[in-house]
């Protein structure tokens, strides 16, 4: 029984240095609380001294107060004993109170100190805006949320295929698919709730191919009266770290001119889902209408950002539809944030066949102008089996000669066609912290 009582007390005393360590935001409030308790103690001490002096020597109360106050010991020793006991009891009470208050929010088997320190660290993380669509942006966000809670995902709304396209056509809402993927990637509820949001129905003609998340966002858009409010409410349900914003609230269509073999003139293809299906080389893409304004919160996030990351994702159908929104592009150029372009790992059939990393950058700058990016992040690991219809996007001599190029291993070893979210986020954070460290001159052409 004695050991059972002493064990939690010993563990609490052992954890005192961790509670008072930097980064948790505990010390200031501990000192504030300790000061208040000290003043209360002084008031109680004055009362006890008065009682001690008001009672005649030898009386039972006088003897009791003399024993309780340890008057038979030197003053310095008494101060140490009472001070140590007071601090120990205060810390023990604070620790147990915090454990009780935080127990509903701490995952089983997790360490409260590590979670609190990690929360504080991510809360102070840089303001990052990710721009793109598809699974590439979701992969980026999944890695970055371990480094910062100040995340904003800007998602293309040009998708017109699959479940999103059907909902867009039938209900007149913006396509929810890419937004759903980003919400799931930023969610704190990684397990059952996220799986439910990503669940795709099958076996029913009416629901075939629809995901639960798409239907959920569509229903919320009808209930709240606006698509943007539906995204906000979905973020709350999923306990999302950061924000997910559509690039524009206007119904835009992606159009491309494609050079087709054996045809002299270029073919005009309308619809994001139809562009990769056209056998040929994409020459130019644009939006209709081409004057759709950006969603105002997107502009604000870009102008306040520390880092802007474009990609990874389909060059012509996921990345460029965002940058073709004119005032969004103007905000990126105006922003003082570090601007990073993440090149794809493999080529995409119907869009970027035979493209190198340099070709990706060149194709992008052909549409948005040169000098937009400060860093070109490329992969230099070409090991692993990929689809026969694709090939590795390699860093050729033109890429390596560009002083903006930064090469790293970004491949998911289990799925070589995909970026590894942890590797990608680490590379981005390395570049950011190196470039923003005033004492460190960085050579990006490694």
Architecture overview:
The chain has 446 residues and is of the alpha/beta class. 48% of the residues lie in helices and 11% in strands. It is built from 17 helices and 10 strands. It has helices at 2-19, 27-54, 60-68, 75-102, 112-123, 134-144, 162-171, 177-186, 192-198, 212-224, 227-237, 296-304, 315-323, 326-334, 357-368, 397-400, 421-436; strands at residues 128-132, 151-155, 243-246, 253-259, 267-270, 281-288, 307-310, 338-342, 375-379, 405-408. Helix 15 links the parallel strand 8 and strand 9. It is elongated and about 115 Å long. 35% of the residues are buried.
Brief summary:
48% of the residues lie in helices and 11% in strands. It is of the alpha/beta class and 446 residues long.
CATH homologous superfamily of the largest domain, by name? CofD-like domains
Q: Tally the helices: what do you get?
A: 17
Order of helices and strands: HHHHHEHEHHHHHEEEEHEHHEHEHEH
**C-alpha end-to-end distance:** 62 Å
- Tell me the major beta sheet: 7 strands, parallel
Share in helix: 40-55%
Features:
Rossmann fold, disordered C terminus, elongated, seven-stranded parallel sheet, 48% helix, 446 residues, three-stranded antiparallel sheet, alpha/beta, single chain
